[in-house]
Specification:
- The protein has 408 residues and is mostly beta strands.
- Among the domains are: 49 residues, no CATH class; 68 residues, no CATH class; 102 residues, no CATH class; 49 residues, no CATH class.
- Helix content is 6%, strand content 32%.
- The protein has a seven-stranded antiparallel sheet, with no helix packed on it. It has a five-stranded antiparallel sheet with strand order 9-10-11-14-15, with no helix packed on it. A four-stranded mixed sheet has the order 27-28-29-30, with no helix packed on it.
- The longest helix is centred in the N-terminal third of the chain and has 15 residues.
Length: 408
Amino acid sequence: MSNQKRFALIGALQSDFAIEAYQDAVGSILVDSAEINFTYTDATPSITAALINASIVFARLQNADAASVLGRSANSSGVLDEIAAGANDRLLRRTSDALNFGQLTAGMFPNTVVPDAALSSNVPLLNVLNTFTDLNTFTFSRTNAKATLLLSANAPALRWVELDQGTDEKQWEIYPASKVLSFVINDDGGGLLATWGAVTRTSAAVTLINFLASEIQLDAALLDFNGAMELSGLAQFGAQASQSAAMISARNPALGNSFEWGHANTGGYAHTVGHEVGSGHGFLAFHAEAGTNSNTYRTRGIPGYIIKSDASGGISFARATNSSADNQSLATADVTISSAGIVTLGYALIGGAAIRLKGYAVAGLPAGTIGDTAYVTDALAPVFGAAVAAGGAVMVPVYYTGAAWFVG
């Protein structure tokens, strides 16, 4: 067939297709399916095909790689692709602005996002009381030959608490703060008096031991040593360091009593060694102690007797005459000895207000020291200022001149 005839046939067909019957016949050939919808428009004329929403089943899609999902990994719009999980124990996540499979990161757990109730019973809980049985253990792994337990500033203590949580609940704490590691015994906060083992608690919280940079501090008032205690170094009580390197040191400017000993009877049978808070003079007090006010003394049932120093190198013997009183000033000293060795006798001496000398027979007078005094019971015709002679019955005082005993 010539080209001219072909063009004539095509023209005739096109002219004939404009007939409505032909258009309907072609439209009837195209049948809608579950996935595609055909639309025939007479006016155009035209035929359109459109995919029906949610109609394509998975079986009609392209095969995917194993263990993968369809999506877009990059943080931008574009063509979809497969995102594969390359190993077990991985989940789909977004990290570094990309969608991928991987493990959890710290940024996926903001504070308080997981409630305690959602955790396993084997996990220590943050906001409730944790109870551990003999099946629970803590294991600290070693890194660079060190096992480390880190405590935050908001939780600076390790605490062990009794399970009964009664009124006498016992608590032990290890408490690090300000470069000090403290071991503390506590109760339930009620301030109850209770004894636990060899340690007596007298308040709600008591520090037992402090480990400092260069020493160990013991709160000895709350420790009971049942056996012998051996100290190889110096024992220092209080913050003041020993000045003389003494084996035992107890120096505190605000506390007058440094050491107490005596009978268990509390009715005045305690004796003390200490110092006057105001003057600093040291004292040895029998049946007495430092008073509440500066430079005074206290008794608790028995009059006190005090031997004390002065700032001149002397020493005195005096009495706290009231048997039960605080803030007593001492009576006039019975005896004072100056730094030069001069002895001064007070008014309250042996025998009341008189001095009692020792008596001898003239033949029994000792080899004395110049100034010694005594009396004899058998002087013969004594003459004042003359050497005493034996053989009589006269009682007279005598004194020693360095060479002989004379009447006077």
